[in-house]
Amino acid sequence: MSNDSLQLKDKNIIVGITGSIAAYKAATLTRLLIKQGAKVKVVMTPLAKEFITPVTMATLSQNTVLSDFFNYDDGAWNSHVDLGLWADLFLLAPASANTMAKMAHGICDNLLLTTYLSVRCPAMIAPAMDMDMFQHPATQANIEILKQRGNSFVEPETGELASGLIGKGRMEEPEKITEEVIRFFQSKKKLQGKQYLVTAGPTNEKIDPVRFIGNHSSGKMGYALAEELANQGAEVELVSGSVTMEPKHPNIHLHNVTTAAEMFELSKKLFPTCNGAIMAAAVADYTIENTANEKIKRQKGQPITLTLTPTKDIAEHLGKIKKDSQVLVGFALETTNEEENALKKLRNKNLDFIVLNSLRDSGAGFNTDTNKISILDANGEKTTFPLKSKYEVAKDIVLYMTEK
Ligand code: CTP
């Protein structure tokens, strides 16, 4: 293999190893990464050294293995900050439940954890543990936190575990992890120099100074899409209604709005320079005709009437001004006649494709961490995906968009 065809040429990778039977696989993983041209530095937790020796890992990585905060022979400080600046990827394989729990909560009582908190590069995590530990709500909650912060995961396989049980928890094979690492570096570059608009969350239409008409949108799907686009190198203009999250990635530029009218104005302004837009917001179709300046007082026993007037359709407007080079993606959350309604929206709004989720599918729609989608394109062609976390769904949507 010539040097130029090496897929990880000049990539600096920290391989983090925790205390797990699967630690032996880190040896093959390190060899495979180096074979592809990567420079590898290994950091081990104290327990990891009980499973595989630092001598083995130092020989394979061609670098000193780091595990302690300082060198016991000469007192020299092992700088996790320098290590963090050096790395292009922090690859944790195998990742134990204990280390992931500490990472999720910012605990840093060993060098591997201080390194994780110091790195400026993305982290990829390959869990390895017994199936019951993996499925435990505490572990799943920690994984969700880490995913929400933009860490990517190499899902463990289902198979025979060290405990003798059969289930999900076996660390993925080194060959597969290496493929993921290569894909990560390839996809990272894919959207470099591109700019996307994402709308997310609910809009709130003011009734009076203390009340509004809103909806159940949590913004999770839109934020996951923004995160995925940014992970792939794009600059993201995120126009967001009121949600409880904050975007983490430096490429995401947040524009907070409250009402449908504000979302319309900002989206209209930002769209012309963008390569595309994903309309994930749950925009109010109606707003209050006359917002009351003072709190509306209760009229005992008397009904009151609020007059609602239509808002402007943001997606429809962008569909009208869209250039051929721009891609426009919409969402349709339906309860009946799903496909028919979604296709109608796609055509009326001049979308390139529409992401359909049905409230009839459990685990899909508002306020869940998961989603089950189908994608319909302008030719009516349908691609269906299984129930996944919103972060995985975001990856599917972005992949579909960039490969179309
Ligand atoms: N949308 C928008 N502006 C609006 C209403 C909707 O940009 N004023 C976008 C949504 O972000 C979504 C798509 O249009 O991408 C479809 O939204 P949805 O609420 O499902 O459809 P509506 O066109 O509002 O139709 P209906 O509420 O009758 O189903």
How would you describe this structure to a colleague?
This protein has 404 residues and is α/β, with parallel strands linked by helices. The protein folds into 2 domains: 3-189, Flavin prenyltransferase-like (Rossmann fold); 195-292 and 300-403, Rossmann fold (3-Layer(aba) Sandwich), CATH 3.40.50. The protein contains 13 helices and 21 strands. It has helices at 25-35, 54-61, 80-86, 97-104, 111-118, 131-135, 137-148, 174-190, 220-231, 260-270, 314-321, 338-348, 390-403, and strands at residues 12-17, 39-44, 89-95, 123-127, 152-153, 157-160, 166-170, 195-200, 205-208, 211-213, 235-240, 252-256, 276-279, 286-288, 308-310, 327-334, 353-358, 370-371, 374-377, 382-384, 388-389. The chain has an 8-stranded mixed sheet, with helices on both faces. Helix 1 (25-35) runs parallel beside helix 2 (54-61) and helix 9 crosses helix 13. The protein is elongated. The two termini are 32 Å apart. The site of cytidine-5'-triphosphate has 15 residues, from helix 11 and strand 16.
Quick summary of this structure?
This protein is an alpha/beta fold. The chain is 33% helix and 23% strand. It has helices at 25-35, 54-61, 80-86, 97-104, 111-118, 131-135, 137-148, 174-190, 220-231, 260-270, 314-321, 338-348, 390-403, and strands at residues 12-17, 39-44, 89-95, 123-127, 152-153, 157-160, 166-170, 195-200, 205-208, 211-213, 235-240, 252-256, 276-279, 286-288, 308-310, 327-334, 353-358, 370-371, 374-377, 382-384, 388-389.
